[in-house]
Amino acid sequence: MFADESQGLFLQDIWLGVKDSKGEYPSTKNPEIVERIIESSSNVGDLVLDCFVGSGTMAAGAEKLGRRWIAADLGRFAIHTTRKRLLSIPNVRPFVVQNLGKYERQAWQVAEFGENGEKAALAQARYRRFILDLYGAEPIEGYAWLHGVKAGRFVHVGSVDAPVLAGDVKAIAREFWKAAGRGSEATGAATNAVDVLGWDFGFELNELGKEMAADANIELSFRRIPRDVMDNRAVEQGDTRFFELPALDVERTTKPGRTLRVELCDFMIPPEDIPEDVQSSLTHWSQYIDYWSVDWDHRDDTFHNQWQSYRMKKNPKLELAANHTYETPGSYDVVVKAIDILGNDTTKSMTVEVG
Prior knowledge:
This protein is an alpha+beta fold. The chain has helices at 31-41, 57-64, 76-87, 101-113, 120-135, 166-181, 184-187, 205-215, 232-237, 276-281, and strands at 47-50, 68-71, 138-139, 148-150, 153-157, 193-198, 219-224, 243-244, 247-255, 259-268, 289-295, 307-310, 321-325, 330-340, 345-354.
């Protein structure tokens, strides 16, 4: 057989000469195999879907080979690992990370606590009692916004399909003083404090909400309902922790030539949420941040990563400042997002004028 007379052989179903892949992620696939599959089953510009993306091998391979791609995973660590892997690719095209978790939560709520419709109120009550029990709080009746009491503090349980917003804080404050007028004997609460539990929170609610609560003479604590509550194994083992929301301090500076500089100045995370062995190894607040990014022109839609800095094993240093030059003068909404070492998102939004 002569090379100039042969069109080659079809690829056989036994692939030799490919080394095993060993990575930090337990199910990591060999990039060479994945890229061979992508090349043999799609063309440049085609759409590739991976419903269980893991560490991102498929998404990275599709990106390098000029394919469009959609990657999905239920694991927060998987999404975070994939995002950092994609960002390490030279000249990676812009992509969006979208959280569609509320649909999963809605399905879980219906499966665990009952259908919507005529029995919606009963299903909602069961859901709240379940969350209160995991949080270690006792349920109370007769209120719309205050659902339980723990250690003398009122507890509010946020909805499965909606974030906790500033309007919710106002309603909680109004009902708190209504409850306070009835006396602590009626509710079991002995302080002017409320723990607000939620799946998601509006931008800057941790700071704005606490300011609103302080004006109303109420102490508020915002805590995230962990995804582990939907995992029966985690619930049975008691592995559910309600982390308090961190606070991100960002300084902004406008410079001549329509340039904006944003700099991280502090990241405050409740120490009780961090394991002691981890705390002892950290010497600076920035070490609590694994990744942060900026959307320089947020339009009240999905957050767009337009600049980012993240840690890698080969380069663990995190940049703490970023600059951006706008093409035209005007007013811009800027959103800064930080992902901490626990995998939680913290956002800070601001409006800037550049001339």
